[in-house]
Amino acid sequence: MIMKERLEAICSKSIAESNYEDIYKALMTVVKEESKTKEQEVKGRKLYYISAEFLIGKLLSNNLINLGLYEEVNHLLNENGKSMAELEDVEPEPSLGNGGLGRLAACFLDSLATLNLPGDGVGLRYHCGLFRQNFKENFQNETPDYWLSGAQWAEDTGKTYTVSLAGKDYEAKLYQLDVTGYNGRTNKLNLFDLDTVDERLIEDGIHFDKSEIEKNLTLFLYPDDSDEAGRKLRVYQQYLMVSAGAQMILEECMERGCNLHDLSEYAAIQINDTHPSMVIPELIRLLEEKGIDFEEAVEIVTEVCAYTNHTILAEALEKWPESYLEEVVPQLIPIIRKLDKVVKAKYEDERVAIIDEENRVHMAHMDIHFTHSTNGVAALHTEILKDSELHHFYELYPEKFNNKTNGITFRRWLLSCNHELTDYIESLIGDEFKKDAAKLKKLADYVDDKTVLEKLMKIKADNKKALADWLLEKQGVKVNPESMFAIQSKRLHEYKRQQLNLLYLIHQYFEIKSGHLPAAPITAIFGAKAAPAYVTAKNIIHALLTLSKVIANDPEVSKWIQIVLIENYNVTAAEKMIPACDLSEQISLASKEASGTGNMKFMLNGAVTLGTLDGANVEIADCVGEENIYIFGQSSDQVIRRYEQGDYCAREWYETDANIRRAVDFLAGDLMKAEGDETALNSLKNELVGKDWFQTFPDFNAYIVRKNQAIADYAGNKEKWAKIALKNISEAGFFSSDRTIEEYNKDIWHLG
Ligand code: 26Q
Fold first, then answer.
1. In the 3-class helix/strand/coil scheme, how is 235-247 assigned residue by residue?
2. How far is the CA of 102 from the centre of ligand 1 (A)?
3. Which of 22, 512, 513, 607 is the most exposed place for a label (fewest CB within 10 A)?
């Protein structure tokens, strides 16, 4: 049946008469039917990617593209006076992740299915995803993100698994949603939930009663962990996920003929950071229950599991007090203690122990000892793990350490979010790049072709106009599409240094006031959520919102600079922002950003990077060459040395550098206080002058010089700028998650 008849049969009326909700539901049905035909029987080893986050974003358009139905549906809508954009607005975004780690998991699922590899996701079905952010009186406010209303992609499988938490049994229900590959197979994302969870528990904002587990367990993605009840809830969530997940994995493998001794021939489990690490003792427990002795169970689990590290920030490495685990998962305690004993018998070094002298359980340590692979997510990150953060482990197990530089799926981050650029690339080099990203290199043939360069800039201009329209409609903000769009979008964190960008904008304010005008007008666009309990991050948002008003009130400066914070930055917003970006701000303190993946998305869409030599920026610079990227700032070696010496004194920089002092004083000066909150602004100023833990000041002047250079190049020579953009697109192939997944498969998983 052709699409029109299929949809009209489901809607029981013509497309023209149907509303968007009807069409959305009908298309969901069609997609589900089509994706079902692409399910494949699994032979050999299957991957289970277990992760507390899957930041999948809206699914309709992406599924239509992957199933080859997009053009037909788009045409049909247009014929009937409807638009895909309005249809997309009907779908709520599942924000089941915080940021990079969760989005990476979603990109990996797309690539697995596209590459025809058997690989499912395992996670949790949170009733509310990451909080919704809105701005009120220049502050961030949080409200719950109810996304589970209306038609659902995920279906109730009818299967449940019993999970014991604090000595009580709970039924974890399995929901599954289809992961369609681009011209590939269909895999599954398995999400567990409890039927008893009750959204009425939510009080004002995102607060809720943390005492009743059966009512609140999967209510929120990462509930506030600033108090003890919150932290424990996180352990409850993690164990629900790993216990139900492990039971499901064993059941599936046994159905396929596995006798458990040979589990590694049926399953590979990738542990996405330490959040699912309890899967190790849980699998050992389940194998022992089925009659396998401890030593063999440990061997099997070590062969099956592999661990990915996403951070070197010590505070983000999970260490649970043994007492928490004793309360929540007493059944794992004897196993964890046994594993700790095995380690202590082998290695005297306290630094590699699982349970430390303060009775804290180091999840990452358990992962490294009892999996066969530990990987970092960019070349520099992996080197830092080996040389410093995890050096003692590297000495014990050099063969376990490996790098897998992150990637992004081109289906969502080019084909779906930037149709105009995709079509143009296809008209130049054919469509092979959609499945074989390395083919983008062919674009390099056109770097001297004026027509191509002009068209590229025309596409960018169209995308900027589209973002401007969207901003006006969503936030009532009017921006100048002729200005340079410099975008920093990522979670708000001091190490990512939105505050460096903030100080630059203040610096420009002074420069403009004294007659030193920038080479082009700039729209500085931010997208960032701050963790609700992270005071300094919230103060940085407050300072940006306040400065935005101060500048808007000043006609002399507002001609040149406008600051826009996008409310509720999420995947959907990113899809609008990324194609419209001229300058991609990747300015973390070198050594701190494990990889970054936004940097890759911007590059692929023809933005030019302004960044430090951190994370995957290093590899982007290697690919495009130093003339096609704006690099500044201290090297990671210098930063690490400064930390080791412990002699960084922010106040000295503040007192001796006039630029720094001028900008920082303005931050908490009269103009800002008139518009903003004195306490918050003072506290941010004190944080910077008194500590500046992420070394903003030493990079400040280098950032100003490099950024101004980029703006001058953009304004002065559009053709040269277009060439740099084209070079960036042509070198983006390496950053396809298809390449990343192929490496994981070759080195770690050996699927199928
Ligand atoms: C830990 C303990 C208690 C509460 C929360 C957490 C927690 C939650 C989320 C710790 C870490 C995360 C998320 C980390 C993350 O997104 N890391 C990013 O991973 C990306 C994919 O590898 C990298 O590109 C980024 O550099 C890295 O920051």
1. HHHHHHHHHHHHH
2. 8
3. 513
CA dihedral 77, 83, 85, 87 (to 10 degrees): -60
- What are 132-166's pLDDT values in tens digits? 999 999 999 999 999 999 999 999 999 999 999 99
C-alpha to C-alpha distances, 380 to 384, 407, 596, 615, nearest whole angstrom = 6, 15, 12, 6
Query: Judging by beta carbons within 10 Å of its beta carbon (0-12, 13-18, 19+), is residue 747 exposed, middle or buried?
Result: middle
In the chain, the largest separation of any two C-alpha atoms, in whole Å, equals: 80
**Cβ partners under 8 Å of residue 610, min gap 6:** 486, 583, 584, 585, 586, 587, 630, 632, 706, 707, 710
Q: How many CA atoms lie within 13 A of 193 on its CB side?
A: 21
Q: What angle do CA 104, 108, 114 make, to 5 degrees?
A: 150
Q: Supply the residue whose CA is at minimum distance from atom 9 of ligand 1.
A: 98
Nearest ligand 1 atom to the CA of 377 is 22
Confirm or reject: Cβ of 460 under 6 Å from ligand 1: no
pLDDT digits (tens, 9 = 90+) for 699-750: 999 999 999 999 999 999 999 999 999 999 999 999 999 999 999 999 999 9
Question: Measured from the CB, is residue 316 less than 6 Å from ligand 1?
Answer: yes
The model's pLDDT over 441-497, given as tens digits with 9 standing for 90+, comes to 999 999 999 999 999 999 999 999 999 999 999 999 999 999 999 999 999 999 999
The sheet that has 155-165: what strands, in order across it? 155-165, 168-180, 186-194, 119-124, 46-50, 267-272, 305-308, 374-376, 401-403
Report, as residue numbers or ranges, the catalytic residues. 310, 490-491, 496, 597, 601
Q: How many CA atoms lie within 13 A of 670 on its CB side?
A: 0
What is the C-alpha to C-alpha distance for residues 123 and 154, in angstroms, rounded to an integer? 12
Residue 615 Cβ contacting ligand 1 at under 6 Å? yes
Burial zone of 476 (CB within 10 Å; 0-12 exposed, 13-18 middle, 19+ buried): exposed
Residue/partner pairs of 333-338 with CB below 8 Å, 24 or more apart: 335/281, 335/284, 335/285, 336/281, 336/361, 336/366, 338/294
How far is Cα 122 from Cα 109, in angstroms, rounded to an integer?
11
Ligand 1 pocket member 99 (CB < 6 A) = yes
Q: Is the CB of 606 under 6 A from ligand 1?
A: no
Output the residue whose Cα is nearest ligand 1's atom 6: 316
